[in-house]
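Long-time lurker, finally posting.

We've been working with NUBP2 factor (Onychorhynchus coronatus) and I want a structural starting point before designing mutants. I don't trust myself to interpret raw outputs, so I'm hoping someone here can both generate the structure tokens and explain anything notable. Sequence follows.
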Amino acid sequence: LPERSTNLLGVRHIVLVLSGKGGVGKSTLSTELALALRHRGHRVGILDVDLCGPSIPRMLRVQDRAVHQCDSGWVPVFVGQDRAIALMSIGFLLEQPDDAVVWRGPKKNALIKQFVTDVAWGDLDFLIVDTPPGTSDEHISTVEALRPYRLLGAILVTTPQ
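Top reply, 14 upvotes:
Generated this for you. Predicted structure of NUBP2 factor:
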């Protein structure tokens, strides 16, 4: 078994947000869910693993921020004056916010594993994981990387067709 990272030990619940197709509102739902949980007094983080379309930094108006390093890994970007929501996204690692990410599966999967093991989340009540559209390798990598932790469940976003 791979060694378990301690960076997620302070996270009480992890919720995946998934869909079978794009454009159904996963990122919007992830963002609104995080804001609603924060409004109720919970400590919240968002992990944006939609590597080809990282929209959450723009939704939360923090796309110009940078990720920094600490002894236990990457420090997520904190949203708002009260630093209410912790956010990690590949959008913070790109030179330009609209740069395309053209990576094969192994490189995407390695980054997802790194996001799970190397982000210093601290103590959170909820970590919302915004996934890419479809049922790709990224989903399998995300679930495999999160398996040792407290995965509360998943929200499946659909359309009424």
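Before you design anything, note these points.
The two ends are 42 Å apart (CA to CA).
The chain has a mean pLDDT of 85.
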